[in-house]
Amino acid sequence: MEKCTGVILAGGLNSRFDGQPKALITVGEETILTRINNVFGKLFDEIILVTNEPLLYLDWNVRIVTDLFPIRSSLTGIHAGLFYASRPYVFFAACDTPFLKRGLIETVVQAMRPGFDVAMPATSAGLEPLCAVYSKRCLEAVARNIKRNKLKIQRVFRKSRILAIPETVLRVRDTHLDSFFNVNTPADLVRAETMFSASGSKLSDANGQTEV
């Protein structure tokens, strides 16, 4: 995907894991970051990791950057990713999604059309702003909202500028929408291990069609 940079957001507070970075939590004998980076490596020539603890991630072959605003929020991470990316479009993923599939990413990236600022999955649970593609054109609007302390991602963009990708389209490449499963709590981690074991330890294939 020559026109798209892949960005992993790893700047959360991790308070529910006693400060342990969620990106470094292990699921199926691999850290979540390793699992995401393996998928990104098949898709993006440029991979950026946004974190405020860069020394923790020196073992990964990614470009490490930090937030440019002294505020902890997903929007400041998106700002940093947009600022440092060299491609016109940027796909963002949260660092706590162990089952992110290549096919789902391809669906989202390929959905982007001229005239839209964002291509964002829309499921029965709502929009997924941390598994979406943003145009570099968004950088100024994102910075402006951060300066005003308006940090809710979806309020940065006019609804008419968000291309919502329907659930029916997403399920073609990710039947159970496992890509959106987040490890937010210790209970989620237990569930993730159960999901991994039930899958027979299979990861997404080259087309993202193997179920996890």
User: What is the typical, i.e. mean, pLDDT?
Assistant: 90
Global structural class = alpha/beta
Low-confidence residue ranges: 203-212
Query: What's the overall geometry?
Result: globular
End-to-end separation in angstroms reads 24 Å
Please give the largest β-sheet.
Answer: 8 strands, mixed
CATH superfamily: Spore Coat Polysaccharide Biosynthesis Protein SpsA, Chain A
Order of helices and strands: EEEHEEHEHEEEHEHH
CATH topology: Spore Coat Polysaccharide Biosynthesis Protein SpsA, Chain A
Fill in the keyword field for this structure.
globular, alpha/beta, two-stranded antiparallel ribbon, 27% helix, 212 residues, Spore Coat Polysaccharide Biosynthesis Protein SpsA, Chain A, eight-stranded mixed β-sheet
Give your account of this protein's structure.
- With 212 residues, the chain is α/β, with parallel strands linked by helices.
- It has a single domain, classed as Alpha-Beta Complex (Spore Coat Polysaccharide Biosynthesis Protein SpsA, Chain A), CATH 3.90.550.10.
- It is built from 6 helices and 10 strands, in the order βββαββαβαβββαβαα.
- It has helices spanning 32-41, 74-84, 102-111, 139-147, 167-170, 186-198; strands at residues 4-9, 26-27, 30-31, 47-50, 63-65, 89-94, 118-123, 126-127, 131-135, 162-166.
- The strands form 2 sheets. Strands 1, 4, 5, 6, 7, 8, 9 and 10 form an 8-stranded mixed beta sheet that branches. It has a two-stranded antiparallel ribbon with strand order 2-3.
- β7 (118-123) and β8 (126-127) form a beta hairpin.
- α2 packs antiparallel against α4 (139-147).
- The chain is globular and about 45 Å long.
- The two termini are 24 Å apart.
